[in-house]
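To close the section, here is one more complete example, presented without commentary so you can practise reading it yourself. The ligand is manganese (II) ion.
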Amino acid sequence: MKIQKQQLEDLNKKGLENHTSHFDFLAQSLSKSGVKVDSVIGKLADFQVAIPSWALGAGGTRFGRFSFSGEPASLDQKIEDIGLIHSLTQTAGAVSLHIPWDVPNDYNAIKELAANHKIKFDAVNSNTFQDQKNQKESYKYGSLSNTSAAVREQAIAHNKEVVEIGNKLGSKALTVWLADGSSFPGQNNFQTALTHTQNSLISIYEDMPADWKLYIEYKPYEPNFYSTVIQDWGTSLMLANGCGDRAYTLVDLGHHLPNTNIEQIVSVLMLKGKLGGFHFNDSKYGDDDLTVGSIKPYALFLIFNELVYGMQNNTQNPELGWMIDASHNVKDPLEDLIQSLEAIQEAYAKALLIDQQALKTAQEAHDVTACQELLQHAYRTDVRPLIREARLRHGGALHPIDAYRALDVRKNLIKERGNKTVATGL
Ligand code: PSV
Ligand code: MN
Ligand code: MN
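Output:
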C-alpha cells in the first residue's frame, strides 16, 4: 500500500479551516513575543527520526506476543511501512536496521525502494545478544567481553560484517548495544570484562570506513541482573574515548535507573562533543520501551531543552543520530510510532520556544522563580498548530492518526499480507 498525495490533500481539506485559525492565532502571539515562527517551523520540518526496523511489528514480553496482523515479513515490507508513516508525518525519513534480521537480498533493489519512499539508512545495529543458527560459538556468557578469544573474535567479525552491509546501503554509523554482563556476584571479573570489551571495540572501530561513527549504547541491567559491562554513560564515554574521535555515547531514554537526570547527561556529553545518538522511548519502571512522551513528557521537554542548547552552542558535538527505540504489545505499531513522532516534535517545538537569552539573564541574577517560569511558559504552550503547519507545508497529514484510520491502512496491510504475520524484532 502507498498513500497518494491527493488522498492526504483531500483529507486535509476537512480540517484546514480549523487549523488555519489556530495556527494564525498562535503564530501572531508567538511573533509578538519575539519568536521567529517560520524558523521554528523550518527546524521542525528538517527534524527526521529513524524508525527501527524492529518496531514495526508488535513487540512481545517474555510472557508472550500478540500479533497485530498485517505486520511486515520482509525488509521490503518494513521499508514500505516506514514509507507510510513518513508520508503521513514527514518526520520518519530514515530507517535503522538490525543485522542479521534485516540483511538485504538485493542491495540495489532495497536502495531504490527506500529512495522511492524518501527514506535514508541511518545507523545499523549489530546483534551479539542472541545466537544465530549455524553459529560456531555461543554468546550465552557474553560477546565482546567474553573470556574466550574465539567468542570475542566471532562477535568482532559480526560487527565488521554489519558495517560492510551498512556501507553498501549508505549508512554512516554502527550502534553497538551489548547484553554482556553477569547475573550473579563472582560470575565475572569486572576488570577483565571491561578490558576485553575495550579491545574488541577498538578492533571494530579501527576497521570502520573513515567517515563512519561508532555509537556505544549503555544500559544498567537486563538481560543480566547483577552487572552489565557497559552499565552507564560514564563507562560508554570511557570506551568511546578509548576508541577515538569518531566513537560516541548513545543515550537510550529507557536505559537509566529511575529518576536519573538524563538531561544533565545529555548536556555534559554535548559539552565534551561526545553525544552521538539518541534512542527515544518512555518508561515507568525500567527499559519499558513505551511510546515516547506517554509517561514523562515534561522530562522529555527538559531533555530537548539541553539538546537545543547543545545544538546551538556546542559546535564540538557532531550532528546527532535520532532514532526511536520503542515497541510493545497492545497498540497498532504504526499508530504507536506516529504518536511517538508527534511527542518528539512537540518536545522539540516547546524547547525551541524557550527564551534562551532571558533564561541566561535570570540564571545569572539567581532568579530561580523566573528560570522556572521561562521553562514552564514554553512547556505550557500548545505547539501542535506549529507541528501541523510543518507537516502541511511538506505534504503530510494535518492529523496523521486520523488519516491513518480514514485510509484504512491496517485493513489494507492485512489484506495484502494476511492475518498471521510475525515481524522480526525484539
Ligand atoms: C535492548 O535494551 C535494546 O532495546 C537496546 O536498547 C538496543 O538499542 C535495541 O535493543 C536493539 O538492539
Ligand atoms: Mn536502544
Ligand atoms: Mn532498550
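Once you have examined the C-alpha cells, check your reading against these statements. The chain is about 50% helix and 10% strand. The longest strand covers residues 247-252.
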